Every structure is written in structure tokens, then in C-alpha cells.
Amino acid sequence: MQFQTRHFGTIEFDRDAVCEFPAGLPGFEDEREFVALEQPHTHPIVFLQSLKRTELCFITLPVQTIQPDYRLSISAEDLRLLDLPEDRQPEIGKQVLCLAIVAVAEGQPPTANLLAPVVINLQNRRAVQAILSDSGYSHRHPLLAGREEENVCSSCGGGPARRF
Amino acid sequence: MLIVRRRSGQAILIGDQVEIQVLEITPGRVKLGVMAPREISVLRAEVKLTREANLAAAQAVCPEKLAELSNRLRSAGSAQACTKPPDRATERPQGACDPS
Predict the structure, then answer these.
(1) Residues of chain B whose pLDDT is less than 50?
(2) B27 CB-near residues (< 8 Å, 6+ apart)
(3) CA gap A134, B30 in Å, rounded
(4) Among A12, A14, A38, A43, the residue to mutate for chain B (most B Cβ within 10 A)
(5) A35 CB-contact burial (10 Å; exposed 0-12 / middle 13-18 / buried 19+)
(6) What is the ipTM of this complex?
(7) Average confidence score pLDDT of chain B
(8) Mutation for B interface: A2, A7, A92, most B CBs within 10 A
(9) What integer pLDDT is reported at residue A37 of this predicted model?
(10) Cβ separation B46–A139 shorter than 8 A
(11) Mean pLDDT by 10 residues, chain A (164 residues)
(12) pLDDT at B79
């Protein structure tokens, strides 16, 4: 499949790489299909590109890169939407991909929404933006706060872009 | 802000069409029941916060700023971010996000 995007030009992907959001996202209820894209030179950022609006592309980060001990508490309703068992939380990285949407506003430090991560079932690509009401996480979690430049990792660069 | 003390089982009325009942009180948590006409949207406040955050996040970001963000994230890098398996994809998006 092909789709013309504003930010990436024409992208190509398999039908089974399309993430389906049965309920859309808050504020974007009509956006039901996205693909996740990664570029080597912007690693670890993951782009969530809409397949309806060419210009709509969310910048996201895997939650573990922000908070290694991040814990999910997805509601039963959202677990149903994801087609996952309601009696336990899915494992991040194994059963689900869990992405925090990042806001990068001019003149303000970047923040990530840890309160409402995008959760993608890796088995069937169904996805929701799950609001973790009781988690205590912030919808404006500061990124890079108090972090100093250290230990540049040389193995992160290189390689082609990744499709999930 | 109007502040009202209520016990379990009691209710407040907003206008003549909306009723909010206190159904259950446990330590640290209250269960509320809302009766309202269908056209009035009833949302948890977090949904509104998330909607606002999504709308703000959907604004276009200049490629330079993106490159700077990813550089700083990499520099600060967690072990997890660096030990991912090699890229397995086939195509490379082209165009605007290239920071060069």
C-alpha cells in the first residue's frame, strides 16, 4: 500500500502494518488508521502517521524510554477494544507497543503524555489511546528534565527506517 | 466554585435536567452516577486533558527541532533504547523530516 504524507513524502507499507483505532483518539475521533514509522536519524522517536490526513503525524516515544518502570492500568473497556483478556494487564514490548504522544511547542520544553499512552496490540494491530485514570502519571510529563549529556550511544544510528 | 457536602445516596441537581448522585464512598475514591440528557456530553476530566494534549501535539514541528529532540534523547539514552534489535524494515520515509 502507498500513502502520500506531508512530512515523509510517499510511504509504502503492508496492509498488516496498519494500526486500527476503533474509537479514534480524543480530539481525532474520525482518525481510525495510522502507521508507525521510525527513522534512524530520529531514533528513538516513533511517528504515528494518519492514513486519512496527510499532514497529521504524531511524534511519540516508547514509554520505556521515558520511564523504564512504566506500568499499565488499562480499563476493561479499553482491553476489550484491544481484543485482550480483561483479567490482566498486557506486557509492554511483548503483547503491546506502548507509545507516549510528545508535544513539542515553540519556546517550551517538550512533554510526553504518560497519562494516556497509545497502546497497540502487536497481534492484531488494534489500538487505543488508553487513559490511565488512576495511574498518577501526568499528561505533560517533562522530557529531558535535569538530564545532562552523557554516554552517547553510537549503536543507535544507521540502518533503514523501521515499519512496525 | 460551589462546594457542597454530600453523603452516600445523596445527590445534587444542575439545572433541571442534570442529576449527580453519590453512589458509593470508599477511602480515596467516590463513585458518582450522572443522569443527563443524551445531548450533554459527560466526560472524565482526563479525556478533556488528553484531547487538548493531542491537539497541541498535532501541530507541525520543524525538522530541526525534531532532530535536536532525538539527539538529546539519544545522548541521555536509556539502555533500553540502545539495545533494540536491528531495524527490520524495508522502506525509508523521504522528505521533510530529514534534518540535514
Answers:
(1) 78-100
(2) none
(3) 13
(4) A43
(5) buried
(6) 0.83
(7) 78
(8) A7
(9) 92
(10) yes
(11) 87 91 95 93 91 93 95 95 96 96 86 96 96 92 63 38 50
(12) 36
Chain A residues with CB-CB distance to B44 below 8 A: 131, 133
Using only C-alpha atoms, chain A has a radius of gyration, in whole angstroms, of 16
- CB atoms inside a 10 Å sphere around CB A59: 25
Beta carbons within 10 angstroms of residue B47's beta carbon: 17
Q: How far apart are CA B91 and CA B85, in angstroms?
A: 17
Give the pLDDT score at A150: 37
Contact (CB, 8 A) for A17 and A35: yes
Closest CA to A3 of A29, A42, A37: A37
Instruction: Give the gyration radius of chain B's Cα atoms.
Output: 24
Count how many pairs of residues, chain A against chain B, have C-beta atoms within 8 Å: 172
**Cis, bond preceding A44 (omega within 30 deg of 0):** yes
- Contact between A20 and A33 under an 8 Å Cβ cutoff? The reply is yes
The pTM assigned to this predicted structure is: 0.77
Q: Closest residue of A to B94, CA-based?
A: A8
Instruction: Please tell me which residue of chain A has the smallest CA distance to B55.
Output: A27
CA distance B25 to B31: 6
Q: Which helix (H) or strand (E) holds A120?
A: strand A118-121
Question: In 3D, which of A97, A129, A34, A47 has the Cα closest to residue B84?
Answer: A97
